């Protein structure tokens, strides 16, 4: 069964628009970690954020913000005032005791 | 931050040959390392998990005799693709955990394998 679901395969926005990338996860562990990564065309993963299961505080980092809600098993990522450089594939990942697994990814295209 | 290297970054090999990919944690000890495979426009799929000094644990559907993983030291894991075929062409990414910290996992830059 898919443990991390990113329902949005592709999103296209115009520069300066806000965009939210959805992530829903499934786990039986009480302690787990959630991540967001950015993958530019080069392929190398860029770490964006990590959240543990006991910390539901939302986080803001510049134009990026994350909303973690255990009640709905969601960890959504919002980019405010998107820029062309934000164009990439974004992955949500779940780290449990034995491994880390990724969602299918969302390809974001920001048009000028 | 911690650094994980992979070598080579890209490789082209002929069908039927074997190719080895190295994954090194440069500034930390990695008790557990992971190998992922990513086909074009797809996600990272976990292939196997290896613990130093132990046999790797393979995901369902991954042929252990075809993808040989050796985690001989706390800083080095290797993936050998044996008798490669064109369908093995993919982007292979390794990852390493810092000790037992599952919240601290670092990824290598990936190796692009093309089998002709």
Structure description:
- The complex is a heterodimer of chains A (112) and B (116).
- Chain A has strands at residues 4-5, 10-14, 19-21, 24-25, 33-39, 46-52, 59-61, 64-69, 74-79, 88-95, 100-102, 106-111.
- Chain A has 112 residues and is mainly β.
- In chain A, strands 2, 5, 6, 10, 11 and 12 form a six-stranded mixed beta sheet that branches.
- The mean pLDDT of chain A is 94.
- Chain B has 116 residues and is mainly β.
- Chain B has strands spanning 4-7, 10-13, 19-25, 32-38, 45-51, 57-58, 67-73, 76-81, 90-98, 101-107, 111-115.
- In chain B, strands 2, 4, 5, 6, 9, 10 and 11 form a seven-stranded mixed beta sheet that branches. A four-stranded antiparallel beta sheet of chain B has the order 1-3-8-7, with no helix packed on it.
- Classes of the chains: A mainly beta (112), B mainly beta (116).
- Chain A binds chain B through residues 33, 37, 43-45, 47, 50, 52, 91, 95-105, 107, and chain B through 34, 36, 38, 41-46, 49, 91, 93, 95, 102-103, 105, 107, 109-110, 112.
Kindly report how far apart the N and C termini of chain B lie.
Answer: 37 Å
Largest sheet of chain A: 6 strands, mixed
Series of secondary-structure elements of chain A, N-terminal to C-terminal: EEEEEEEEEEEE
Helix coverage percent of chain A: under 10%
Q: What's the rounded overall pLDDT mean of chain A?
A: 94
The helix/strand series of chain B, from N terminus to C terminus, equals EEEEEEEEEEE
Q: Fraction of residues of chain B in helices?
A: under 10%
Biggest pleated-sheet summary of chain B:
7 strands, mixed
Number of helices of chain B: 0
- Rg value of chain A: 14 Å
How does the helix and strand content of chain B classify structurally? Answer: mainly beta
Structural class of chain A: mainly beta
Largest interface: A-B, 21 and 20 residues
Instruction: Report strand % of chain B.
Output: over 45%
How many helical elements of chain A? 0
Low-confidence segments of chain B, given as residue ranges, are: none
Count the E strands of chain A: 12
Strand content of chain A: over 45%
Shape of chain B: globular
Secondary structure tally: strands of chain B:
11
- Which oligomerization state do the chains in this entry correspond to? heterodimer
């Amino acid at each position: 069964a898919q443990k991390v679901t990113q329902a949005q395969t592709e999103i296209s926005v115009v520069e300066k628009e806000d965009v939210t990338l959805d992530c829903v996860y499934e786990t039986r562990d009480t302690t787990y970690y959630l991540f967001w990564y950015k993958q530019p065309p080069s392929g190398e993963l860029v770490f964006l954020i990590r959240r543990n299961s006991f910390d539901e505080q939302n986080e803001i980092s510049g134009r990026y913000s994350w909303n973690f809600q255990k009640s709905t098993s969601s960890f959504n990522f919002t980019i405010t005032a998107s820029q062309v450089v934000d164009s990439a594939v974004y992955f949500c990942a779940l780290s449990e005791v034995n491994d880390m697994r990724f969602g299918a990814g969302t390809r974001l295209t920001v048009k000028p | 931050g911690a650094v994980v290297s992979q070598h080579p970054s890209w490789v082209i090999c002929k069908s039927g040959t074997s190719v080895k990919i190295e994954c090194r944690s440069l500034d930390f000890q990695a008790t557990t390392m992971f190998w992922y495979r990513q086909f074009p426009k797809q996600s990272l799929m976990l292939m196997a998990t290896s613990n130093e000094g132990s046999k790797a644990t393979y995901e369902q559907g991954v042929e252990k005799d075809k993808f040989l993983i050796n985690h001989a030291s706390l800083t080095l894991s290797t993936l050998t693709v044996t008798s490669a075929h064109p369908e093995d062409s993919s982007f292979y990414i390794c990852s390493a955990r810092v000790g037992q910290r599952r919240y601290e996992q670092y990824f290598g830059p990936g190796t692009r394998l093309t089998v002709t």
